[in-house]
Request: fold
Amino acid sequence: MSPQPGAPPLKRLALPQGELAQFHDGVEAIRYMAYIELRPGALRGNHYHKIKREYVYVIGGKTELLVQDVNSADRAVVLLQAGDLAFIETGIAHTLRPRSPGQAIEFSAAPFDPADIYRFPLEFA
Reply:
């Protein structure tokens, strides 16, 4: 799976000594990284950013990702599971609804800035 057109393919290898999952390989530096615990019944997100473009890599479990363009109101729901990588562009409101316990990593080339978090309540249909 490639997160963007022209990006190198990512790999996930099941090795005898354990899994090796490559979720970032590029010239763009990572300036922000966070661990996300996925707990069913607890939504994560309900906001968008004007500066930060972010990736979410699911380590384990399953979660639904609801995204909505704040300008056009176009919406989509994507089921993510272990090994999936989602790219979230600026101006896209997003929230995660875990379907099973799990873990994910969120990372970005932009450093964390609390002034770049714009609340945007999203509801699953």
Observations:
- The first strand starts at residue 12 and ends at 15.
- The chain is about 0% helix and 50% strand.
- The chain has one domain: 29-119.
- The chain has a mean pLDDT of 90.
